Amino acid sequence: IKEDRHIREQQKEADKSLGDKQEETIYRDKKGRKLDMLNEFMRQQAIREGKEVEEKAEQEEWGKGTVQKQEEKAHQEELANIANEPFARTVNDPKVDAMYREKIHADDPMAAYMMKKREKEGVKGKNGKPANPFYK
User: Fold this and answer.
1) Which end of the chain is less crowded, N or C, counting CB atoms within 10 A of the terminal residue's CB?
2) pLDDT, tens digit, for every residue of 47-84?
3) Sign of dihedral through CA atoms 82, 86, 88, 92?
4) CA triple 98-102-107, angle to 5 deg
């Protein structure tokens, strides 16, 4: 008991000699080497965040198929084209008119006929002759 009391008194004296001053935390890496505290912490944090962003982007890329990527690209191009057009679209705008005419609705009685017509137009050229193969 005397030894415990003696040890406690020594600890109190040591604490008084330090005063209110607290020592800075020493950060060490996995091998036990000291690290420059703030710079190293920020570097490691940036690496972690970079990996997280990279993994998230990779996950999104794997989650989408090629069709979805093509649709997204087409949508972005369409938005860019719309941004270049005048603000107000009129009734006589040929692009808007063509867009509405190309849509095929499920309850349209002519939908089946239009689908067949489009398939035939794909096989034939616009002038009625068979279309030549188009290689990229």
Assistant:
1) C
2) 999 899 888 888 877 777 778 888 889 999 988 988 88
3) negative
4) 135
Structure tokens at 55: 């993994």
**Helical spans, DSSP H, in 1-136:** 2-18, 37-63, 66-84, 94-102, 111-123
Threshold 0.70, pTM exceeds:
no
- Return the closest-CA partner of residue 128 out of 98, 102, 120: 120
Rounded Cα distance between 100 and 79, Å, is 17
The tokens describing 33, both together, are: 């080497």
- 105 secondary structure, DSSP code: -
Q: Determine the length of the chain.
A: 136
| Look-up of token digits 């794997």 | 62
Does position 44 have pLDDT exceeding 80, yes or no?
A: yes
